[in-house]
UniProtKB/TrEMBL annotation:
Gene3D superfamilies: 3.40.390.70. It comes from Agromyces atrinae. Pfam families: Peptidase_Mx, Zn_ribbon_DZR_6. Residues 4-83 form the Zinc-ribbon domain. It comes from the Bacteria. This is Zinc-ribbon domain-containing protein.
Length: 344
């Protein structure tokens, strides 16, 4: 994430802010100009024309519309369906989930990844179906032909954490779900449509033509062998598609967090030369996915920082912020994603 300044008082404000807590300036995010701008009333006059506040402001959306005609912002317009509001918990879950979605869309924009909305392309365009699991209605998170289904009930921390423990996962967040599912979307739009990329994908991740249903059944019936030496997570072992989606999500985790660290000038000189073959433990993140020749350059900045962040978390009695280790074969998979995203 980038660092933003309040146009009223120049203090640092979060990307998510609806107003500046210091000076009270009403804020909104202008996607076209990648800026938090001051809004008076409902409208804002940008370089590209008049925009207005998204109608979902009440649910925390701080984006502007693309023009004066629209009532919802680009991110909200990607939502194809959602439950009828009414119950307070559904409203809260929608707000929380849409927040994670705006973080995703911001990052995709930063990476220059194409987003074709279902409104422009009904068959295969990107859409989000937001639905909530209830006692008699189970929602499966997933992707199908551009449509990403998200289970809103996972916006509830206690529920999502219970699932994480039940499934034996190291990490489970709403943003993580979005980053994983968008990986399936980009596999469909960038990999499947390109014979050379598809061939390179099969060499790296395996042949996706194996039966997907059987693979998932085998995964959930247990008995998975050791995975740490060639996958980023146990779930990635289920099928080459899942391996790709997990790796893609992981690439977004690393690049997004490094961007935040770099934006604040967070850098580490490290405790010295005696910490193994890597030499000094230093990190001065200034790389972007576009400027890094190889994912190895990104990881050289990331791994010391991840270690430090984990120790900071442990010092507060919390679990690791970054509960992963990256084996060499996973570096190769990340390299594949890096080339795909950076257009190399
Ligand atoms: Zn301010
Ligand atoms: Zn919106
Ligand atoms: Zn998946």
């Amino acid at each position: 994430m980038r660092i933003f300044a309040c146009p009223g008082c120049s203090r640092v404000v979060y990307y998510d802010n609806l107003s500046c807590l210091a000076c009270g300036t009403e804020l909104a995010y202008d996607r076209e100009n990648v800026a938090l701008v001051a809004v008076v009333g409902e409208r804002y006059r940008a370089a590209g024309g008049v925009r207005r506040r998204c109608m979902n402001t009440i649910a925390g959306c701080n984006w502007l519309t693309a023009d004066d005609e629209a009532s919802e912002c680009f991110s909200c317009l990607l939502t194809r369906s959602r439950p009828v509001e009414g119950e307070q918990n559904i409203f809260d879950w929608l707000a929380e989930t849409s927040h994670a979605k705006r973080w995703l869309i911001f990052q995709l924009d930063e990476l220059g990844l194409p987003i074709v909305s279902h409104r422009d392309k009904p068959n295969g365009g990107l859409a989000f179906d937001l639905d909530a699991t209830t006692d008699d209605h189970r929602v499966m998170i997933g992707h199908m032909n551009g449509v990403i289904t998200i289970d809103l009930s996972e916006a509830q921390d206690s529920h999502r954490e219970a699932l994480r423990v039940l499934l034996g996962e190291a990490y489970r967040t709403m943003l993580g779900h979005f980053r994983h599912e968008i990986g399936h979307y980009y596999w469909m739009t960038l990999v499947a449509s390109d014979p050379a990329r598809l061939e390179a994908f099969r060499e790296r991740f395996g042949d996706e033509r194996q039966d997907y249903g059987q693979a998932l059944t085998a995964h959930y019936s247990g008995g998975v062998a050791a995975w740490q030496h060639d996958h980023i997570s146990q779930y990635a072992t289920t099928h080459p598609w899942e391996d790709f989606a997990e790796t893609f999500a992981h690439y977004l985790h690393i690049c997004g967090t490094l961007q935040s660290a770099g934006a604040f000038g967070l850098s580490m000189a490290g405790p010295g030369e005696e910490l193994g073959a890597r030499g000094s433990l230093t990190s001065h993140p200034t790389l972007t996915p576009q400027s890094a020749a190889s994912v190895r350059d990104i990881l050289a900045e990331w791994q010391p920082l991840a270690l430090a962040l984990n120790l900071v978390n442990r010092s507060l009695g919390k679990g690791d912020l970054y509960p992963f280790t990256i084996a060499d074969p996973v570096v190769e998979k990340l390299e594949y994603v890096h080339r795909l995203v950076s257009g190399r």
